[in-house]
Design a protein that fits this description.
Structural class: mainly alpha
Strand content: under 5%
Number of helices: 4
Distance between the termini: 76 Å
CATH superfamily: Fumarate reductase/succinate dehydrogenase, transmembrane subunit
CATH class: Mainly Alpha
Order of helices and strands: HHHH
Low-confidence stretches: none
Number of domains: 1
Amino acid sequence: MASKKTERPLSPHLFIYKPMLSMTLSVMHRATGMAMYFGTLVAAWWFMSLAMGAEAYEFFAWVMGSWVGMIVLVGFTWVLFHHMFGGIKHFFWDFGKGFELETVEHVAKLAVVVPVCTTIIVWAFGLLLISGGGL
């Protein structure tokens, strides 16, 4: 049995395809899933600081209130929304809905815009409440 060595990959790989928005969002869905793991570590730190007393909580609040902490919190909020909306898309795909090319492209565009908008809305609402603006 003679075999000829091929110069192509054994299986399709991301780098041989033309980048598309839906492909990028698929990678982002996986990345946001991993990022949520690290976000749960921050949440665990928050819970532990609450249990450990005022000094531990004040340190946590100081770190999360810094500009780096705010970037982490806003980023984590975006990660949650991005992953959630990606999960909703996959939920519909599980039922065989939304596979038409036009629908896939439309949903991909929404999956970029909606998480950004919901993150802005949540943070604007939260900052309004903190500043005493109320409902």
